[in-house]
Amino acid sequence: MALVSTMVVVLLVGPLLLIAAMGLLLLSTAFFPSGPQRIRETFQCPWTGRVVTAEFLVPEGAAHPSDVASCSAFPNPERVMCTKPCRELAEIRWGLSRPVFPRWALIADRLVTWRSPTE
User: Fold this and answer.
1) d(CA 81, CA 1)
2) Is the pLDDT of residue 113 over 90?
3) Looking at residue 14, what is its pLDDT?
4) Which residues are registered as beta bridge partners of 37?
5) Which value, in Å, is the radius of gyration of the alpha carbons in the chain?
6) At a CB cut-off of 8 Å and minimum separation 6, what does 36 contact?
């Protein structure tokens, strides 16, 4: 009889403990900072005057990139040899990215898009 009661307790309490542990794990990820994100942009370089593609390292919540990981202005893009003036010119906006939303939706028998008339 003791074996049956032990099995019942394990089968009832075990899943609840696993759910609580997973919940704490997911909740803890919200409090620990993540690493910097890599963002690729194409723009006119203020140093060379050419149109280049650069990858920036952006810490979470920052207004400007902290570093340039690669730039197409150099023969070896991973070896950036300038003073990186583009970091101060780049502006980071935090929020939901456009791929989260559909490009169009059918609402009230009309087609609605997220594009503005200038795009």
Assistant:
1) 76
2) no
3) 87
4) 58
5) 25
6) 57, 58, 59, 60, 66, 67
Distance CA 105, CA 100 (A): 13
**Cβ contacts of 41 within 8 Å, gap of 6 or more:** 53, 54, 56, 90
- First-to-last alpha carbon distance for the chain, in angstroms, is 73
Return the C-alpha torsion angle 77, 99, 64, 86, nearest 10: 40
Contact 86, 72 (CB under 8 A): no
How far apart CA 45 and CA 1 sit, in angstroms, is: 78
Above pLDDT 70, what percent of the chain? 76
DSSP state letters, 76-117: STTS--S--THHHH-----S--GGGS-SEEEETTEEEES--T
